[in-house]
Amino acid sequence: MTGRPVLIFDGDCGFCTTSVRFAERRIGVRALVVPWQFADLPALGVTRERAEREVLWVQGGGVYGGAQAVARLLIAAGLPWSPLGFALRVPPLRWAAQGLYRLIAGNRHRLPGGTPACALPQDRR
């Protein structure tokens, strides 16, 4: 892969895809954006299980998941987004962001753009 950051998301999930497309349009994602289903996960240092569970930001040998992936995306986007990204890396905002991320991820099939397939385990989609 390139030295460019990589944003990995669940391409089978309507909510995830809608969210990533929104971020590309409104925030300006400065990364290679790829559904995990088409990514070379071993080359990126990512397991399939982790990619199924959360959005991932891969950069410089580090893999950041969930709310911390979103924080890294915001930081990379520059102003006006980067201050929010830096804030999401510091407790107690870090803890709150991770809790909110888990709540959203666990209910993504109920959210706008979500589909019943989002609630199924990957092997049953």
Q: Would you give an account of this structure?
A:
This protein is of the alpha+beta class and 125 residues long. It has one domain (6-124). The chain is 44% helix and 13% strand. It is built from 6 helices and 4 strands. It has a 4-stranded mixed beta sheet with strand order 2-1-3-4. Strand 1 (6-9), helix 1 (14-27) and strand 2 form a beta-alpha-beta unit.
Blueprint (SSEs and pairs):
Layout: E1 6-9, H1 14-27, E2 32-35, H2 41-44, H3 48-53, E3 56-59, E4 62-65, H4 67-77, H5 82-87, H6 93-106
Parallel strand pairs: 1-2
Antiparallel strand pairs: 1-3, 3-4
Short description:
It comes from Streptosporangium amethystogenes subsp. fukuiense. The chain is built from 6 helices and 4 strands; from the N terminus they run βαβααββααα.
Overall pLDDT level: 89
- Report the sheet with the most strands, covering strand number, pairing sense and barrel closure: 4 strands, mixed
Radius of gyration, whole Å: 14 Å
Strand percentage, roughly? 5-15%
| Alpha-beta classification | alpha+beta
Helix content percent band = 40-55%
Strand order of the largest sheet: 2-1-3-4
* Unreliable runs: none
Distance between the termini: 28 Å
Looking at how many chains there are and whether they match, the oligomeric state comes to: single chain
Q: How many structural domains does the protein architecture include? A: 1
Q: Count all strands and give the number.
A: 4
Number of helices: 6
What is the overall shape?
globular
